[in-house]
Every structure is written in C-alpha cells, then in structure tokens.
Fold this protein.
Amino acid sequence: MLKQGFYLCFSLHLHEKYIPMDIDTLNGLKRCPLFQGFTAEDIMSLMHAVRYRVVRYAKGEIFAIAGDPCLHIDIVVKGEMIAKVASPFGHSVRMSLHHSGNMLAPAFLYAKNNVYPVTVEASTEAYVFRLMPDDLENLFSVEPRLYLNFIKVISNIVAHLTKRVSMLSMSVKERLCFYLQEEIVRQGTTDLMLTLSRQEMAESFGVQKYSLQRCLNELKQEGIIDYDGRHIKVLKPSGLT
C-alpha cells in the first residue's frame, strides 16, 4: 500500500487562531517520555508556540519504508505501528511494536545518514503527532527539560538495541528465556500475560514459529514454565538463567 496518511489538523502559526488539541493527542503526548514530568497544561502551553500535525494512517498503511529519510519527530498518539525488516530468507522479522506515546525513530532524526532502518506500518488505525525539527529545537531552547528528556530517550534506545544485538548470538531457547526474564521485570510478576501471539514472538526473534513452539514445550517439560495461550506462568525463574 502506498504511503499517504491523512492530515487531520495542525497547530497554527503564532499570528493565527489556535485550535485546541484533542484529548487523544494530548493523552498520547502525556505518555511519551519526551514529555515526562510535564502536566497536560504544560504540554498545551508548549504547543501554542509550534506547528504540528496529527496524521491518520489506516490499518495496513505504510508509514515509512526502510531507506526513507527521517525528517520529523513523530509520536504515536493513538493506535499501533509495527516495525519490520526483511530477512535474507524472504520473510519479515518483527522488530518492535509502537503504542500510544512511543516515538518513531527519534535517534535517526539528527543522524548523518538519517534514514529509516526498518519499514513501519500501521497495525491498527493509527494517529501520529508530527513536529518539524526546527520547532523541536525551539522547544528545547524554551524548556530545557525537553532536551534532557530527549537525551534520555536516545540513551534508552541505545541500551535496548545493545540487548537486541546480544540476542543475535543466542540460541532460540536462550532468546525465549531472555524475553521471559524481561517480561517478569516489566510486568512485576512471574504470572505473565503476553501481548504477542506465537507468530509475533517468532517474528520478533527472527525464527520460525515451530522453532519457538519447540522451545516452549521444552521449558514446560523441564518444569520451568507452564502455559495456556498467551498466559505463561514461570514456575522456576532460576531455570531461565
């Protein structure tokens, strides 16, 4: 499907009448780490001073193709976007799923080679808040906390990618154990409810679904986990290490 997107609205220049921000956009920005520590009133006040757009993408519509230039700060404010990369074997590998509040490729905006490394498409109807780089820079000068938050976002991306790279040398079973350990930390419990289907997990690991299922069965037979669909109970957390 061709990239297009539908521009719903945009903040006007300072000499024009300001259009109030809709609640979904505001809530999406409040979830974004770029605006961590900011109230709704703070965010709305900042948006008075910049130009922004909210772009609608239909389910399955392409947001960006790998190799496209990264020219804006884009934040998902409603719906979901999925990032995929083509493997040498011809199937797509799921890299990440972006929810409301997630920034799309912020680390590449100011890169010398500022192109998207993956293809991104809407996995549901999605709305993306779009800000031009010069407006972001103006906000940095007005509110230094935004600049610090942006640095934190980039640092967290580097840390996450480092983990992903380390997984490349792991076996499928080791990747699964690593993933379950991360989910235990993220959910704060060993009684896990996964957001990914088996197929989605396999794509995320860059493996075939049957290979992932075999590893799940092995962990179950070893008494380390029990599972029913997306519900996985880790019986022996030490067995994941």
